[in-house]
Specification:
- This protein is mainly α.
- The chain has a single domain, classed as Four Helix Bundle (Hemerythrin (Met), subunit A) (Up-down Bundle).
- About 50% of the residues lie in helices and about 10% in strands.
- The protein has a three-stranded antiparallel β-sheet with strand order 2-3-4, with helices on one face.
Length: about 200
Amino acid sequence: MKIPPEAVETLRWHDGRLELIDQRILPERLEYLACRSALETAESIRAMVVRGAPAIGCAAAYGVALEALRLREEPPTEFAADMNKAIAALSASRPTAVNLFWALKRMRAVWDKIKDWPCGEIADRLLAEAHEIAAEDVRINRAIGANGATLLLDGARFGRRSRQAHFGHRRRNATLPAGCTVDRLGDGTGGHSGHTHH
């Protein structure tokens, strides 16, 4: 399959659900898989639908938000119990993924500060935090790509590849961060190199 030249998002929030590029079937097909709960998100992480530390962290954050939205009409006690189960399921989905635990810790910290809020408002706030985590990832990775590009001279060679071809290759294959995965072959300043939280 020829992937179109416009940017493609590794993951995206659409119509109240998380959509992930199914990386198991790349590059033959470009398809999104929808997640509507923490358990579906955890299974997508476990099954390698989504890969790469930054994208896994963002997906986990959205998994927490999805569960909060799903439970928003529950009484506070049941809401808290089910949210804890959801976070535990997400934690178990990829035990070696550093960003997953970083994102879950951040989402829990937000929740801890607003536990006395109505459940619906908690859900809305957690969704806003998941959006911010994803947006931060895009900003960081764009900055990494831009800074890296300035270190290379026009026409620099990487084995048989030119500077432009090198960044073009990185762009077409950069499905690890949560932001743009495919972009036009231009000056190379938009390529992403995923970051890991420590």
